[in-house]
Automatic annotation (TrEMBL):
Gene3D superfamilies: NAD(P)-binding Rossmann-like Domain. The keyword Oxidoreductase applies. This is D-2-hydroxyacid dehydrogenase. Belongs to the D-isomer specific 2-hydroxyacid dehydrogenase family. PANTHER family: 2-HACID_DH_C DOMAIN-CONTAINING PROTEIN (PTHR43333), D-ISOMER SPECIFIC 2-HYDROXYACID DEHYDROGENASE NAD-BINDING DOMAIN-CONTAINING PROTEIN (PTHR43333:SF1). Residues 29-314 form the D-isomer specific 2-hydroxyacid dehydrogenase catalytic domain. Residues 109-283 form the D-isomer specific 2-hydroxyacid dehydrogenase NAD-binding domain. Coiled coil: none annotated. The keyword Ribonucleoprotein does not apply. It holds the Pfam family 2-Hacid_dh_C.
Length: 315
């Protein structure tokens, strides 16, 4: 009998062999099997108590007669057949938190790039122009972080050494947070925070409440020297309003790891702005992906045996 089945589909170009090896190292007394083909997946999940991978479809779920836990290798789980998993009594966990260090480091890179105008230096290098240009310092600025989850916490933690004032925006401001100030999502509080923001960092899930959170009105409130950083989801920002804001210089620029639509069409205007940095939803990439995820799953396997609470459970 196989205890844990690792499905074949990987993520971020990382091999599932590495994931299976990390699990075996942490769970030497368990049988961990890597399914390399569709037929192996159907065969191995039949009596497995735990299955882990990027997704599981209805057909594979039907074949998993003994399944107690599906450990998703993504932080997002909207693509999973949650109703069917719930009906079968299968617990679901996700990878929330494992990307926080790498995403926070990328955010810091964006902020330092705009503070020191490094993108202007790169432009002059491409053009072989040896001319000085003006730059800023990150210290003394105000960063507003929307979302106080693992990513938001990691961003604020890394800003502490830069003498940056921080404001956090979260659904439950009464819970506080690591920022100097915490406010809620009501319009007045949000606009008050935006009006004194130099760097706006979006690190919140995409929900009905956050879809289009930053639109025309918000760009009008942000100071013209402010910079937008989005490592959340593209839909948190109204893309047309962003393009308009950049064109009329309502903001200094933007750094986007996510966009709406994603990927951007080749003829989209965001490609053409020198003050918009675009990365291909890559902030979460890290060689520590599998070790961190394996640590969570190994803990949850032991918790499952003991009837204890599972880490990162989403249903």
């Amino acid at each position: 009998m196989t205890d844990i089945v690792v499905l074949r589909r990987g993520t971020h170009g990382l091999s599932m062999d590495e994931y299976a090896a990390e699990l075996r190292e942490r769970l030497p007394d368990r049988e961990v099997a890597l399914a390399r083909t569709p037929s192996e997946e159907r065969e191995l999940v039949a009596d497995a108590r735990v299955v882990t991978g990027c997704s599981i479809d209805s057909d594979l779920l039907e074949a998993a007669g003994a399944l107690d836990l599906f450990a998703c290798a993504y932080a997002g789980y909207g693509h999973l057949p949650m109703d069917e998993l719930r009906e079968r009594g299968v617990a679901v966990t996700n990878a929330a938190g494992i990307h926080a260090p790498s995403i926070a480091e990328q955010v810091l890179g964006y902020l330092l790039t705009f503070a020191r105008d490094l993108h202007e230096g790169w432009r002059r290098q491409r053009n072989r122009e040896y001319r000085h240009y003006q730059a800023r310092e990150l210290g003394g600025s105000t960063a507003t972080v929307v979302g106080m989850g693992a990513i938001g916490h990691a961003v604020v933690e890394r800003l502490r050494g830069f003498d940056v004032d921080t404001v956090g925006i979260r659904y439950t401001p009464e819970k506080g947070g690591p920022t100097d100030e915490v406010v809620g999502f009501d319009d007045e509080a949000v606009h008050d925070a935006l009006a004194r923001t130099d760097y706006l960092v979006l690190a919140t899930p995409l929900t009905d409440a956050t879809r289009g959170l930053i639109g025309e009105a918000e760009f009008d409130t942000l100071p013209p020297e402010s910079v937008l950083v989005n490592v959340a989801r593209g839909g948190v920002v109204d893309t047309d309003a962003l393009v308009h804001a950049v064109r009329k210089q309502s903001i200094r620029g933007a750094a986007l790891d996510v966009t709406d639509p994603e990927p951007l069409p080749e003829d989209h205007p965001l490609w053409n702005f020198e003050n918009v940095l675009l990365t291909p939803h890559n902030a979460g990439h890290t060689p520590e992906h599998w070790p961190r995820l394996a640590e969570i799953l190994a803990t949850n396997v032991r918790n499952l045996d003991a009837g204890e609470k599972l880490e990162n459970r989403v249903d």
